[in-house]
């Protein structure tokens, strides 16, 4: 809706659309507050045209050690353009409400260098637009550490459950397919 409010007056005045409005996939329209920062993650600016893995995370989950594997996946494929976005969520009641504590788990305990947002709602009517679109293109996360592989056009090409480890061959194949996709 906010996009229409911005684009309609531009259309009516005959001016060209901003390039991001015409080129940014629906999935990547918006911003998220960056974990432990005053900055935001502009999803379109940072991820448009790049292969992406989106994962909902939680600090107090049995799957939290997957941070190590997600970081290894990111390091393995980042030179080929892969991005990883971690989105902490307390939707399954296993995340801290303290951003500093979440940051410690991610950055200190597991050495995460990929992008992490502040805690967000990822399920139900209050889900952020990113997860509403991920759900529309695949399925809603059923637990922490659900993984979505997105191609360079902003389309979900595969989703994986929490039980799928970051080094799983099917996940690796989906990541390689996303890397091979044409922007």
Describe this structure in words.
The chain has helices at residues 2-13, 19-23, 43-47, 66-77, 99-109, 129-137, 169-180, and strands at residues 31-33, 40-42, 52-57, 83-88, 115-116, 147-150, 156-160. It has 183 residues and is an alpha/beta fold. The strands form two sheets. Strands 5-4-3-6-7 form a five-stranded mixed beta sheet, covered by helices on one side. Strands 1-2 form a two-stranded antiparallel ribbon. β3, α4 (66-77) and β4 form a beta-alpha-beta unit. 36% of the residues are buried. The model is unreliable at 1-14 and 17-21 (pLDDT under 50).
In CATH terms, the superfamily is Glutaredoxin
| N- and C-termini, Cα separation | 26 Å
Major sheet description: 5 strands, mixed
- As residue ranges, the low-confidence spans are 1-14, 17-21
- Provide the number of structural domains: 1
Which helices and strands occur, and which strands form pairs?
Blueprint: H1 2-13, H2 19-23, E1 31-33, E2 40-42, H3 43-47, E3 52-57, H4 66-77, E4 83-88, H5 99-109, E5 115-116, H6 129-137, E6 147-150, E7 156-160, H7 169-180
Parallel strand pairs: 3-4, 4-5
Antiparallel strand pairs: 1-2, 3-6, 6-7
């Amino acid at each position: 809706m906010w996009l229409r409010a911005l684009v309609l007056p531009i259309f009516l005045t005959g001016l060209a659309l901003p390039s991001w409005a015409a080129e940014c996939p629906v999935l990547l329209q918006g911003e998220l507050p960056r974990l432990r920062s005053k900055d935001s993650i502009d999803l379109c600016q940072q991820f448009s045209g790049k292969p992406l893995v989106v994962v909902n995370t939680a600090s107090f989950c049995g799957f939290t050690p997957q941070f190590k594997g997600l970081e290894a996946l990111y390091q393995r494929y980042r030179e080929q353009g892969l991005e990883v976005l971690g989105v902490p969520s307390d939707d399954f009641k296993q995340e801290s409400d303290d951003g500093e504590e979440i940051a410690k788990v991610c950055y200190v305990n597991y050495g995460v260098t990929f992008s992490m947002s502040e805690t967000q709602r990822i399920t139900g009517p209050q889900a952020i637009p990113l997860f509403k679109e991920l759900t529309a293109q695949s399925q809603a996360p059923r637990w922490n550490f659900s993984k979505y592989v997105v191609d360079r056009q902003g389309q979900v090409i595969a989703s994986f459950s929490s039980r799928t480890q970051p080094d799983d061959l099917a996940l690796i194949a989906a990541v390689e397919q996303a890397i091979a996709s044409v922007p």
